[in-house]
Structure prediction request, 442 residues.
Amino acid sequence: MKQAILLLTLTFSGLNLAAQVFPAEQTALFWGPSGELYCRQGHEVRVEAPPARPSLTRMIKLPSDLETVHVEGGWFWGNRRVRKPGGQEIQVLRSADGAHWHFVARWVVGPRQPGCRILAMGAHFLATATMATFQDGNQSSRVAVLTQGRGNDLRLKRLIDLGPKEGPQGIFVPWALALPDGWALVHFRTGHLWTIRALGDRIQTRPYKVFDKVPDRALAGNMPLDLAVLGCQPGPTGDLLIATRSEDAVLKGRAFAKSVSPELGQPGWVDPELLKDPSPQARETVRRAVEAYGKRQDELQDAVEPKVLEAFPELLWWELDPREGTLRRCEPPAGAPSRIGSLEVLKSFRFRFRVDGSLLMGE
Amino acid sequence: MRLLRPLFASLTPSLVLALTVQGPLAIAAGCFGTQYGIEYTIVCVSRACKGVATHPDGRITSAYITVEEAQQACAELMN
Prediction:
């Protein structure tokens, strides 16, 4: 109890959160070998079939304890976290139909084996560590290729070099987008991207950066940036379509918001003696203080963010070709906006492809 | 004497009470714990989630995080 209060007061003591608005959660898209499209939202997958294979259309309910469900090589894959005495293991499961799942391999989390998401990639697996690094001798990385030996256990095959000297720090859960022969990882906060492809026995890694002026040290997570990437989806050809804010919005948006509303993100205060007091009166006082503070910050954000959007309304579109290793600006696709008109538009912003390759906004 | 401390923006009241009453336990609205010497506190409210990291050298960093980031991080912290 005492430790909890100590931790609370310690963590609260330096809080200075700048508000930030996230777009809607993306639908995860996976293109199948027959041209079908798997669209995962939460624990449901909708399969859209091409005209030549209408029987592939279906809806699949996924087990609720599966994470990171994806489609690769004609199989459904997923992760399941299992707590065991002394630790945790992440199991990799596979399914032919999305309904019946079978154990394939396990990653035992330990001091040198961080917790991670595990994605199928050809004969191996790609893993992204959430809060720590994979270690190989003196080298470390937040991303690694794992391989299965003779038994069920996965082991580190090699680290993935994320390029910049200062790699991602803190909580690292990049968007993972399926490519025909690998994955693209998108650091949506900074606009750094990487493609990792299994080309025969070779693993090819390429780094990309949407905005030249966003420094690599932004990966450390301690720069006041607006979100760089608002959406990213794989198209039927294997290219990625990416929607971003403008470079000015990313680099200057937070400072602009603070200049308009200096109170935004400033900490509130409560007497810590009240936190220690279990009486109903003290709890009610704390509850009211927190509620009032949160409400005030929400009001400030609601007032400021439209002005930030008004100052930096541009919505930019990009195409990334993982085979050629190119990332370039493109015109907005048919039906796609070039400006973010309002906060509500930003909050609900997302897009995906239909099975015919056309773009669908808002889903 | 008035010794005051800052509060989380938008922190849910039930979370405050849950944390102060229960201590460092995993709870429905978030979690907190230590990973590699860094103390993390993660809370989720209706709009998004927030994470705070207290580093061994005393630095305190914080950020809004997505629900997926919070889920993954809490799974780590609850290990």
About this structure: Residues 280-311 of chain A form the longest helix (32 residues). The longest strand of chain A covers residues 75-84.
